[in-house]
Every structure is written in C-alpha cells, then in structure tokens.
Amino acid sequence: MDFEFTAEQKAFAKSTADFAASRIAPHRRDNDVRGSYRDGLIAEIAAEGLYGLRVPAEHGGLELDAVSAGIALEELAAADLTVCFPVLNAALVAGVLAANGTPEQLRRWLPPIARGEAVVAVALTEPDHGTDAANIAMTAEPDGDGWVLTGVKASIMATAYATHGLVFARTGGPGARGVTAFYIGLDDPGVTRERTNDLGCRAGGRGDLVFDRVRVGREDVVGGPGDGFIEVMRGFGFSRALIALMALGVARAALDEAIAHAKSRVAFGQPLSKYQSVAFSLVEHATVLHAARLVALEALTRQDEGLDPVLPSNMAKWWAPKAAVEAVQQALLVLGHLGYTEDGPIAQRLRDVIGMQLADGTAAATKLVVARSLLGREHAP
Ligand SMILES: Cc1cc2nc3c(=O)[nH]c(=O)nc-3n(C[C@H](O)[C@H](O)[C@H](O)COP(=O)(O)OP(=O)(O)OC[C@H]3O[C@@H](n4cnc5c(N)ncnc54)[C@H](O)[C@@H]3O)c2cc1C
C-alpha cells in the first residue's frame, strides 16, 4: 500500500489549495450570509478545470483519477464546503454519463459539463423517499417515443444553480428495477424550484425540484430504461468517499484554526497549547481524522485500480463526517467565546459540516452496506 500521493497529485493538490485559499476562502462568510455564491464563482471554478475532473480529455476534461477528485474536493472544502457541490456533482455525473452514454450522447453531454456551462444536480431524493430511494414515486409515463415526468425531488443540492439534472424516475414496476435515470435540461417551463432555509451550506442552493408533466425523450435516457438504480447508481460507488473527504477538509481547516489559536492565546501565563487538556484533545481529533482519511483514500485508490470501492467508501462515509463534526466542535471550544460567534472562523464550519452526515446517505444507510458485508445479508439488519 502506497501512502504517498504521486508528484502529479501533489502538484494538483497545491494548485487547488492555492486557488481555494485566494479565490474561495475570502468569500466563505459573505456567501453564507447572502445564501448564494458570489457572482463569477462558477465561471472561475470552470476556468480552473474543476468541473472536468472526471470528464475524459477527448470531451474537454482533465480526466483525473478518483484520488485526485478527492484531493480537489478536500482542498475546496477546507476553504468553503458549499462550493464543493457543483464540483462533486459534475465529477459523479460525468463519470456516470461517460460509463453509460452512447458516443453521440457523450459529445452532447460532456463538453458543457467540463466548461461549467452545464451545472449539474443529482435528483434522487423525494419528500417521502430518502434512505429507501429504491422506492421513489416520481413517475415517467410513456408518451409517444418518450416519457412525461411528474413528481417532486426534495433536498437537491445546487437546485439554485443547476441547468441540468440527473433525474431518477419510475418507468417500470415497483422497486429498484423500475427506475430509469434521465439526464435533462432544467429550463423546461414544467420545472419549478423551491429553496430550503438550511442550518448550514446556505450558499449551496439546496431545494426542491418540482416536475409538472415534463416531456423527455429516448435520447435523454442514461443507460437503458430500468437501469437507473442498478447500473447507473453503480457509478456512485465512490461518491461517499468523496463526501467523507469534503467533511475531513472542513475539519482540518477548523483544527488548524484551533492550533493557531492555542499557540497564541495566553491563559494563566502561558499559551493554551501548553495545557495537556487542550493539546491532547487536538492530538486525538487529528489522529481520528487522519485514520478516517486513509479509509476514504483507500476507497478512491480501489476505484482507480478497478477494484470495488464500496466497502471502504461506506465505512468512510459513516465515520468521517461524524469525526469531522466532533473535531470542529472541539476546535470551536478551543477558541472559547471567539469560537461561538458567527464573526469567528469556526461556527459556520460546524453548521456546514453537519450536513455531510446526511448527504448521500446517513450513517444508518452506510452501516447497512457494511453490515451486509460483515455479517452476510441474511444476518444483517
Ligand atoms: C446537505 C444535504 C445535501 C443533499 N444533497 C442531495 C442531492 O444533491 N440529491 C439528492 O437526491 N439528495 C440529497 N440530499 C438528501 C439525502 O440524500 C437524504 O437526506 C438522505 O438520503 C436521508 O434521507 P431522508 O432525509 O429522507 O431521511 P429518512 O430516510 O427519512 O431517514 C430519517 C432517519 O431515519 C434513519 N433511517 C431510515 N431508514 C433506516 C433504516 N432502514 N434503518 C435504520 N435507520 C434508518 C436515517 O438514518 C435517518 O436518521 C441531501 C441532504 C443534505 C442534508
């Protein structure tokens, strides 16, 4: 097992970290207060090539490995978690489209994603179906040589910005095999958007997408009818490791802020860092974060090596966001009253990072996957 990034990955991490520190971090608080990205942000991220992380080079992307996608998202998250979502969605959806699309579909779909002209949402969750996503109710009624979509997608990140969506709807019978994935523009008059008023990630533009008799054609189907859940969702096998790294990026930034504060703040005649209860709590969180990061990176490495990433990806997804929330909370405490104010650096990070315990599946959903592997399907909950 190799614990070192390659020279290319290190250089990519440095350039992304520099971009994030200069162009993203300074606007984190303003984005949060406004509840939206600053003007020009999406175009600047596109100019860095970050929407094309997983787009093949022949379609204008960087065609990077999954580990590099994780590196980029971790660095962006350390600056501002909310800007990760269009980048994450582009990476996942481009991968799924590339794996399932026809050559003609890829020529139509992928270059706009790489250029940042198509901002992508992943529309799976519904008001009554989150963890049991295989039972989604949104209908795709046959209509000539296409379908008509009707239903509500809830809790969809980047709803405020998305031009396109990977939308899952029921074309067949009950359960996973009746679900088809469509990649469609969201400019149809039958699509309306409703923002949610969130605890954190407020600039991420989460909301509902309401589809009222939206016509889609055969050319919009990803894979084949009925492939949506089984085949297309397979492309999301490493998504949970990417989200784990996003949570860990936030926690790393908060710990760095706590360490800087502990070294400079004097209490009872010496810096806080000289007190074991302060220093050792930071050590404990840093250790857990480090270990959780290795699990997430193992999942991405397996993805790159053509091995199944699902087990470490799900382990990382239940553990890393929990560890990150706990680390950010401890960082806040190290800053004392300065940590508790929204004018300080950490309060927003705590509100933001909690969302990673829900996005793309809760701890229960991910532990269920691990339990089936650990105990066997017949003995698992
Ligand atoms: C910040 C954020 C971003 C998101 N982005 C997107 C997005 O872009 N696209 C999208 O489609 N969705 C998105 N979601 C939705 C997310 O995927 C769901 O919130 C998640 O899958 C959980 O579904 P739910 O909220 O309906 O909770 P439910 O499924 O109703 O679960 C509620 C509680 O019950 C527990 N529970 C449910 N079933 C079981 C079970 N079988 N065993 C044990 N416990 C169980 C859960 O763990 C949870 O604690 C996002 C959510 C958040 C908060």
Task: Describe it.
By secondary structure, the chain is α+β, with helices and mostly antiparallel strands. The strands form 3 sheets. Strands 1-4-5-8 form a 4-stranded mixed β-sheet, with helices on one face. The chain has 3 domains: 7-118, Butyryl-Coa Dehydrogenase, subunit A, domain 1, CATH 1.10.540; 121-226, Butyryl-CoA Dehydrogenase, subunit A, domain 2, CATH 2.40.110.10; 237-375, Up-down Bundle (Butyryl-CoA Dehydrogenase, subunit A, domain 3), CATH 1.20.140. Strand 4 (164-170) and strand 5 form a beta hairpin. It contains 12 helices and 10 strands. Helix 7 (239-264) packs antiparallel against helix 8 (276-304) and helix 7 packs parallel to helix 9 (310-334). It has helices at residues 7-24, 28-34, 41-47, 66-79, 84-100, 103-114, 239-264, 276-304, 310-334, 337-340, 347-354, 363-375, and strands at residues 120-123, 139-143, 146-156, 164-170, 179-185, 191-195, 207-217, 221-222, 266-267, 270-271. The model has no long low-confidence stretch (mean pLDDT 97). The structure holds flavin-adenine dinucleotide (FAD). The site of flavin-adenine dinucleotide has 18 residues, from strand 1 and strand 3. Residues 122-125, 130-131, 155-157, 201, 206, 355, 358-362, 364 line the site of flavin-adenine dinucleotide (FAD).
> How confident overall, as mean pLDDT?
97
Question: What is the fourth-level CATH superfamily of the largest domain?
Answer: Butyryl-CoA Dehydrogenase, subunit A, domain 3
Give the terminus-to-terminus CA distance. Answer: 32 Å
Number of domains: 3
CA-based gyration radius:
21 Å
The CATH architecture of the largest domain can be named as: Up-down Bundle
> Per CATH, what is the topology of the largest domain?
Butyryl-CoA Dehydrogenase, subunit A, domain 3
Which structural class should the secondary elements be placed in?
Answer: alpha+beta
The SSE string, one letter per element, is: HHHHHHEEEEEEEEHEEHHHHH
H/I helix tally:
12
Number of separate strands? 10
General form: globular
Q: Regions with pLDDT < 50 over 5+ consecutive residues? A: none
Estimate the strand proportion: 5-15%
Spatial strand sequence of the major β-sheet:
1-4-5-8
